[in-house]
Amino acid sequence: MKGLVALVFIIFLYYLFAYTENISGLYQEFESRLKVQSTPYLLLAFFLVAVNWWLEALKWQYLMKPIQATPLGTAFRAVLIGISSSIFTPNRIGEYLGRVFATTRKHRWKAAVALSFGSLIQIAIISILGVIALMYFFGTDDVHLSISVPLYTLFALLVFALASCLFFIGPLVNSFQGWIEKVYQKAWPQIQFLIAFQKQDLGVIFLLTSIRIFVYVVQYLALIRFFGVNVDSDLAICMILITYLIQTGLPLPLLLGLMARGEITLLVWNYLGVNELSILAASYGLWVINVVIPALVGMVIVLKLEPKIMQK
């Protein structure tokens, strides 16, 4: 059974790369850049992979705090298993399965709710930063604003309101207890733990999410420098955040998601007139080091611990 799972995973990755547009050109671009004195940027991006997922494991530990005590090593394992399973599903739905199966059986529904809560926090912060990036970029002398500023402001205020609701999730859920129990009584035991979140812990979760986004931006910036894309850092950061904002809102299966990733990257960065192959190489390269490599590690963990996980 384990061998079959590994074989399916390898075949899937093979077809994934085989059908990625311009894969040979992207590889040639990577080879050519290795000959240039820009490898420190690549090493920085690789180093931050561990930082990125360590932060996510720490965030997961805090999200699980009201549910069950979760050692950091267990949280890290759950994150890697989640990445491995998410690679097969649209909008990383498989991440729920991965993390849930790394949790004790009686807490699995609560773990799914905790992951959804963490995802909402991430979406809220990305949306706020993305709107700020849009306003900054379209406010530059080189670009004319085609959408009215009040519309951006309204969207930013709505997202900020969502973020505020998430921060005060305990009192909010508590105030709706009667309505939730009336509409769907079985749901209440699975979300009741949200009331137990301490303000300090929520602050840490928001902070860890923000730091993770910062790490992602630095990784992306390092890779575009590695591939020789010469753009002012402030504009590059804006493009990265705008790209991340759009990608976050697309619930597509992986193959379609990869194609969409390329199209979105070209659409956004086209405003700066950068080399298309270089920016695509940076975008796909970031996906490989942040998702594919950790997914391989996660698959090894799944194959090693499958019986224990299934017996919980």
What features would you describe in this structure?
Helix content is 77%, strand content 0%. It has helices at 2-18, 23-34, 39-63, 72-86, 94-101, 108-138, 149-167, 169-175, 177-183, 188-191, 199-226, 233-248, 254-269, 276-311. The chain has one domain (2-311).
The proportion of strand residues reads under 5%
Average pLDDT value? 78
User: How many structural domains?
Assistant: 1
- Principal-axes geometry comes out as globular
The computed structural class is mainly alpha
What is the end-to-end distance?
A: 19 Å
**Helix amount:** over 70%
Query: Tally of extended strands?
Result: 0
Number of helices: 14
Return residue spans where pLDDT drops below 50 for at least 5 consecutive residues: 1-5
Write the layout of secondary structure elements.
Blueprint: H1 2-18, H2 23-34, H3 39-63, H4 72-86, H5 94-101, H6 108-138, H7 149-167, H8 169-175, H9 177-183, H10 188-191, H11 199-226, H12 233-248, H13 254-269, H14 276-311
Helix pairs in contact: 1-14, 2-14, 3-4, 3-11, 3-14, 4-5, 4-14, 5-6, 6-7, 6-11, 6-12, 11-14, 12-13, 13-14
Which properties best describe this structure?
single chain, 312 residues, mainly alpha, globular, disordered N terminus
Provide a brief overview of the structure.
The protein has 312 residues and is an all-alpha fold.
